[in-house]
Amino acid sequence: MCNNTTNRVSVSLAYTDGRNWLSEGWWNLRSSACETLLRGPLAAQYYYVYAMDERGGEWKGKAFMCTRDREFRIDGREDCFARGFDRTGFFEIDTGRDAKNWTVQLTDPTPSSTQ
Questions:
Q1: Is 114 contained in some domain?
Q2: Is 110 a domain residue?
Q3: Residues spanned by the domain of 14
Q4: Is 80 exceeded by the pLDDT of residue 87?
Q5: CB distance 65 to 77 below 8 Å
Q6: Quick one: 57 exposed, middle or buried, by C-beta within 10 A (0-12, 13-18, 19+)?
Q7: pLDDT digits (tens, 9 = 90+) for 8-42
Q8: H or E segment at 10?
Q9: Tens digits of per-residue pLDDT, 33-85?
Q10: CA–CA separation, 95 and 99 (whole Å)
Q11: Burial of 14 (0-12, 13-18, 19+ CB in 10 A)
């Protein structure tokens, strides 16, 4: 994971081994820094990421997983609220069928041109 933004970013990751879901976080990446979130060969084709910066910016999606405000490692993605967790939308990353590793580059949003 690389943070190519001008702000510190907190990142969480989710994935499945084919039977069970796991979500974990937070990794805190300073501006222009990269960090390895998972070591070893990839266990899945699809991974899910949610990130937020210190100014309230988010990288999110429609795949909902369980999270919490402090460091976490949560088994399962169902009944988040009932289990005392938050429910957060992650974006999907398709690493490809035979990928051994992958890197996500988080970037600042492109400003819209004014007319």
A1: no
A2: no
A3: 2-102
A4: yes
A5: yes
A6: middle
A7: 999 999 999 888 999 999 999 999 999 999 888 88
A8: strand 9-16
A9: 999 998 888 888 899 999 999 888 899 999 999 999 999 999 999 999 999 99
A10: 6
A11: buried
Residue 83 one-letter amino acid: R
> In the chain, how many domains are there?
1
Question: What six digits make up the tokens of 19?
Answer: 């039977």
Give the pLDDT of residue 109: 67
Q: Is 36 part of a structural domain of the chain?
A: yes
Spell out a b/e string for 75-109, using b for 16 or more CB atoms within 10 Å of the CB, else e: eebeebeeeebeebebbebebeeeeeeeebebeee
- The values of phi and psi at residue 82, to 5°, are -65, -25
Distance CA(61)–CA(4), nearest Å, equals 19
Residue 53 neighbours by CB distance under 10 Å: 19
What pTM was estimated for this model as a whole? 0.87
**Nearest partner of 11 among 54, 75, 63, judged by Cα:** 54
The answer to the question of residue 87 being in a domain is yes
Token pair for 90: 């992650």
Give CA separation, 88 vs 21, 75, 105, 106, in Å. Answer: 14, 14, 20, 18
